[in-house]
Design brief:
It is a single chain. The chain is 42% helix and 16% strand. By secondary structure, it is of the alpha/beta class. The protein has two domains: 143 residues, Aspartate Aminotransferase, domain 1 (Alpha-Beta Complex), CATH 3.90.1150; 229 residues, Aspartate Aminotransferase, domain 2 (3-Layer(aba) Sandwich), CATH 3.40.640.10. The strands form three sheets. It has an eight-stranded mixed β-sheet with strand order 2-9-8-7-6-3-4-5, sandwiched between helices. The protein has a four-stranded antiparallel β-sheet with strand order 10-11-14-13. The longest helix is centred in the last third of the chain and has 26 residues. The radius of gyration is 21 Å and the shape is globular. The N and C termini lie far apart (46 Å). Keywords: Aminotransferase, Pyridoxal phosphate, Transferase. This is 2-aminoadipate transaminase. It comes from Grimontia celer. Its cofactor is pyridoxal 5'-phosphate.
Length: 383
């Protein structure tokens, strides 16, 4: 049986392939976006785990939109406007997939920053969207380029990760957030705001969501994979009711509903008295690891390489002199360090500037230091 044309046009995930290779115990992986499993709040979840056996109702079929007590809690927790509702998904990645399936026809224009999140490119590729990119600055998307794209191409939506962007780590400035929101309202473009790293800020003050400035023109994707556990597979999508009702309709046909016991477990975790302390502990740990990686890179990177500081998230972006980054990544893997080359984060890989994405959350300080030594040695030979 022939597979669908949309899938034929979707390349296999380089990151999945390199992570498989990086499973070798002799390889230090800076490639994945994995939280440290030592941060999983299992102790905080134990009270709820122990009471689930006394809650037979959560083992029955549930509402497609999600477990009502969790959704009620999150409506207050996220301070959603009265016009908005929330729904639970099997990870925020499913939420993105539902948005694409509900709203994007083949050929519809979807705007993204370049570089951008690989998983989003795959989702929009499967629905055969026409992905249009705008450059990124240290403050967020190039506003004039975005304005031009909105005016000339009338896109349906703008997908973005404003807080600690994947892959670059950039956090949009307050002014950029306001300008993007104003453009979305002016040109009637829906903002799809992906916020999986927002809680991982370890320096500076929190900045309002972009969607706070255009609440009637936005959908927000939130994840608990980075602050609770990826294995829970619970993400939350929120937006005005008319935006979310089509997503609920599609989800009903996709999987009926996400796991109700896992939603109940998440609710117990979020209501635990020590949950805020748990978040602070994660931030402290990741800040320490980031500082180790950043310091080692500054000391050891060859001339011509550049790294910009970040205030949170899971990644740093190292720009390089012009070179074949795929070839470089393969050679580095032979040297025992896994990284992700920049072309995988561009819809048109040939347009990618030479760079590497490095993750700092799932390696010890000793491993980070050794990885940078191997990286620096490989770069010295390659460039």
């Amino acid at each position: 049986m022939e597979i669908a044309k949309s899938l034929q046009q979707t390349p296999s995930s380089y990151i999945r392939e390199i992570l498989a290779a990086a499973s070798d115990k002799n390889v230090i992986s800076l490639a994945g976006g994995l939280p440290d499993e030592k941060t999983f709040p299992i102790d905080l979840m134990k009270p709820t785990l122990e009471t689930l056996s006394e809650m037979p109702e959560v083992f029955q079929y549930g509402a497609t939109a999600g477990y009502t007590p969790l959704l009620n809690f999150l409506t207050d927790y996220f301070q959603l406007p009265d016009t908005h509702i929330a729904m639970a998904c099997t990870g925020s990645q499913q939420g993105l997939d539902l948005i694409a399936r509900a709203y994007v026809n083949p050929g519809d224009k979807v705007v993204m920053e370049a570089p951008s999140y690989l998983g989003a490119m795959q989702v929009f590729g499967l629905v055969q969207a026409d992905i249009v990119t705008v450059p990124q600055t240290e403050f967020g998307p190039d506003i004039e380029a975005l304005r031009t794209v909105f005016y000339e191409q009338s896109p349906k939506m703008f997908y973005a990760v404003p807080d600690f962007h994947n892959p670059t780590g950039v956090c949009w400035s307050l002014e950029t957030r306001k300008q993007v929101a104003a453009l979305c309202e002016q040109y009637n473009v829906a903002l799809i705001e992906d916020a999986p790293y927002r809680e991982l800020r370890f320096s500076g003050e929190a900045i309002p969501l972009v969607s706070d400035f255009c609440p009637q023109h936005s959908i927000v994707l939130r994840s608990f994979s980075k602050i609770a556990s990826p294995g829970l597979r619970v993400g939350i999508v929120s937006g005005k009711r008319s935006y979310l009702e089509p997503l609920i309709k599609i989800k009903q046909g996709a999987d009926l509903h996400s796991s109700v016991p896992m939603q109940a477990l998440l609710l117990g975790l979020l209501k635990h008295d020590n949950f805020d302390y748990h978040i602070d502990t994660i931030r402290t740990l990741y800040k320490s690891r980031y500082e180790t990686l950043y310091s080692e890179l500054q000391d050891k990177l060859p001339e011509g390489c550049e790294i910009k500081p970040v205030d949170g998230g899971m990644f740093v972006w190292v720009t390089l002199p012009s070179c074949d980054t795929f070839k470089l990544a393969k050679e580095l893997l032979k040297d025992g360090v896994a990284v992700v080359p920049s072309p995988v984060f561009y819809p048109q890989p040939e347009a990618a500037k030479a760079a590497l994405r490095l993750n700092f959350t799932n390696a010890t300080p000793t491993e980070l230091a050794e990885a940078v030594s191997r990286l620096a040695s490989g770069l010295a030979k390659a460039i």
